[in-house]
């Protein structure tokens, strides 16, 4: 181990490809990917981290709303998304920004955090459901979408992301039960990041692991080092094959869901409205920094001759550029106060229509600018 000390997952039964130092473990199988794909995973990790740093800074400047940082959790979102096909659907909570980066949707997405509903509308084009703040409320919808894919014989799976705290919600259990009974092609991606705001995992569940909850619903639960991008890739790939019903290629295979517990750690605050020093010692974070996914992936690429100083520099520059472009794009988005009525209903219910008409009349009277925040 390095200067940070003991590997926090040393005694945990988690699937890993890379050791904490980024070297493949002696008995691990490194996923069979092209050099470009390995570098693309690294690029997405670096871009996600850069986005995260800039997003927190933008919030502090009043340029975006409340934001949920993801530093430390990039590998699970990026690695799992690389293991899916583009046609597969992603339904996420609010912290798995790496999935959006891996789908190359950052510019389309960022406007959401600036209050533009167009942000969530645009990512739908890339097969990503809108983010979900009502904890676990997206899970029955994700299972419903997976069921629909199965019903229509479409070869598509759904990766549904959520935190450990979400497993205490009824929606989680209903979704898991339905998926188990009806064999929906769903990957339940549980991000065990240590906390649900200020509640530690030890106070969240009496189960030894989140993964073992899957047994109650009759399907597999697996635990993986969620700060290892290649392990996150491999385990998701396997789960996606099982969901497609082609795990071992044998005829008659049925599609099965999987619960994947990504064991990881949230380095930063729950959101920009949170102060983690109120409930945890800053020193608690340190051991987890030794598992930083960016360092491990960079070390892996260097060790295997897939990248050098110049390559790393180029990827960092590219990440800065992608994020800067996304911010420019988002800040140039035209705001319309009536947007908030547009995307929830195909047809507005009478009461909502009345509210919209009232707003339109007020906009007519006072001008649009009166309803938009000034610079
Ligand atoms: C139904 C519901 N209850 C409570 C909240 C308030 N809340 C927002 S985030 C959060 C914690 C969620 O923790 P977890 O699912 O572990 O995800 P994490 O934030 O750690 O990524 C809570 C309780 C909410 N958004 N929705």
Automatic annotation (TrEMBL):
GO terms for biological process: organic acid metabolic process; sulfur compound biosynthetic process. It comes from Halorubrum trueperi. This is Thiamine pyrophosphate-dependent dehydrogenase E1 component subunit alpha. Pfam families: E1_dh. It comes from the Archaea. One of its GO terms (molecular function) is oxidoreductase activity. Keywords: Oxidoreductase. Residues 43-334 form the Dehydrogenase E1 component domain.
């Amino acid at each position: 181990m390095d200067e940070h000390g003991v590997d926090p997952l040393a005694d945990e039964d988690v699937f890993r490809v890379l050791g904490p130092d980024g070297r493949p473990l002696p008995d691990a199988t490194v996923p069979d990917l092209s050099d470009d794909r390995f570098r693309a995973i690294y690029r997405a990790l670096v871009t996600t981290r850069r986005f995260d740093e800039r997003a927190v800074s933008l919030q502090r400047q009043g340029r975006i709303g409340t934001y949920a940082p993801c530093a430390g959790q990039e590998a699970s979102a990026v690695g799992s998304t690389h293991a899916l096909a583009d046609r597969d659907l992603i339904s996420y909570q609010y912290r798995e920004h790496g999935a959006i980066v891996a789908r190359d949707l950052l510019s389309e997405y960022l406007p959401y955090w600036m209050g533009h509903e167009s942000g969530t509308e645009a990512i739908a084009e890339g097969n990503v459901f809108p983010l979900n703040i009502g904890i676990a409320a997206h899970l029955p919808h994700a299972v419903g979408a997976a069921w629909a894919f199965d019903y229509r014989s479409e070869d598509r799976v759904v990766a549904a992301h959520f935190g450990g705290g979400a497993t205490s919600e009824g929606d989680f259990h209903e979704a898991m039960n339905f998926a188990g009974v009806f064999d929906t092609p769903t990957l339940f991606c549980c991000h065990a990041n240590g906390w649900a705001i200020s509640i530690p995992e030890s106070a969240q569940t009496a189960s030894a692991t989140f993964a073992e909850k899957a047994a109650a619903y009759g399907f597999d639960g697996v635990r993986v080092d969620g700060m290892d991008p290649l392990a996150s890739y491999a385990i998701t790939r396997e789960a996606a094959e099982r969901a497609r019903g082609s795990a071992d290629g044998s005829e008659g295979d049925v599609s099965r869901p999987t619960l994947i517990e990504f064991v990881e750690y949230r380095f930063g605050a729950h959101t920009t409205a949170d102060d983690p020093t109120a409930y945890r010692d800053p020193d608690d974070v340190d051991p987890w920094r030794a598992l930083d996914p960016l360092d491990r992936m960079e070390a892996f690429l260097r060790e295997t001759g897939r990248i050098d100083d110049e390559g790393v520099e180029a990827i960092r520059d590219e990440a800065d550029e992608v994020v800067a472009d996304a911010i420019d794009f988002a800040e140039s988005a035209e705001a319309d106060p009536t947007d908030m009525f547009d995307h929830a209903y195909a047809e507005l219910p009478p009461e909502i229509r009345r509210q919209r008409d009232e707003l339109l009349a007020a906009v007519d009277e006072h001008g649009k600018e009166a309803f938009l925040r000034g610079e």
